[in-house]
Amino acid sequence: MPITIRRATIDDIICMQNANLHNLPENYMMKYYMYHILSWPELSFVATTTDIDVEQDTQDANEDYMIMNDNLGNSIKLDPTYVRPGEKLIGYVLAKMNDDPDQSNEPANGHITSLSVMRTFRRMGLAEKLMRQALFAMREVNQATYVSLHVRQSNRAALHLYRDTLKFEVLSIEKSYYQDGEDAYAMEKVLDLDELKISNFTHGPNVEKKPIEEDDLKSDLLEDIIKEGLDNITV
Length: 235
Ligand SMILES: CC(C)(COP(=O)(O)OP(=O)(O)OC[C@H]1O[C@@H](n2cnc3c(N)ncnc32)[C@H](O)[C@@H]1OP(=O)(O)O)[C@@H](O)C(=O)NCCC(=O)NCCS
Hints:
Helix 4 (126-142) links the parallel strand 7 (109-117) and strand 8 (146-152). The strands form two sheets. Strands 1, 2, 5, 6, 7, 8, 9 and 10 form an eight-stranded mixed sheet that branches. The protein has a single domain, classed as Gcn5-related N-acetyltransferase (GNAT) (Aminopeptidase, 3-Layer(aba) Sandwich), CATH 3.40.630. It has helices at 13-23, 30-39, 54-64, 126-142, 156-165, 217-228, and strands spanning 3-7, 45-49, 67-69, 75-77, 82-84, 87-97, 109-117, 146-152, 169-174, 184-190. The protein starts with a strand and ends in a 7-residue tail after the last helix. The chain is of the alpha+beta class. It contains six helices and ten strands; from the N terminus they run βααβαβββββαβαββα. Bound molecules: coenzyme A. Coenzyme A (COA) binds at residues 23-24, 115-117, 122-128, 151, 155-158, 160-161, 164-165, 202.
């Protein structure tokens, strides 16, 4: 199943909002997605899959979703999971630089606004990759020295990802940060270009793999001979 991670564009924002509505209670108006993509086009990323039969897929979409015709007679598909026929959005990270005028004295720093991966594509390292791409771009393009985010205290999966995999630190607990009254961990991470290299991905191509143990008849035999003596060995 080919999965691509690429920069998010304006064409992706309906799908990003759809994924956000599926996965998180913190939702945003479309203009907030636009604001991110238009202001910092280098910072937000999407994961998409193209492992689908385009014709079948379009047929299925026709059955599930309304197809409209524009005034030129072209049909427009309104399936919010597809960026275009055959390309389905399965995850995103929405990121920005801190542009709070009250903090203009702070060194450049980035912020993760939202992150989610569709349920059936979780635990494959996609969130880690999306995050690392965004953090690398913040550092490389915008010279951000650190990045911040908030996470619900009850969100174990996200907390593991940020704290254990990506090495964010908990700065403070913000009481009743969320609308439903739940507290948030305010987290930060210093951005270091070397550390953000692809070779350091936990799920990346250069991850040290456990050596596969192979049967080695010679050394097994030698071990037995040493232990038991030549006469007791039958081959
Ligand atoms: C949190 C979320 C984005 C993780 O996405 P993902 O693609 O499954 O994460 P990854 O596969 O990249 O996981 C990387 C690490 O995150 C942690 N992690 C991810 N899911 C986890 C889970 N269910 N339980 C514990 N740790 C988890 C692990 O440390 C994991 O490393 P490992 O696989 O080596 O153990 C995903 O669960 C999700 O979309 N949740 C709903 C939306 C959300 O909570 N967003 C974050 C808001 S702050």
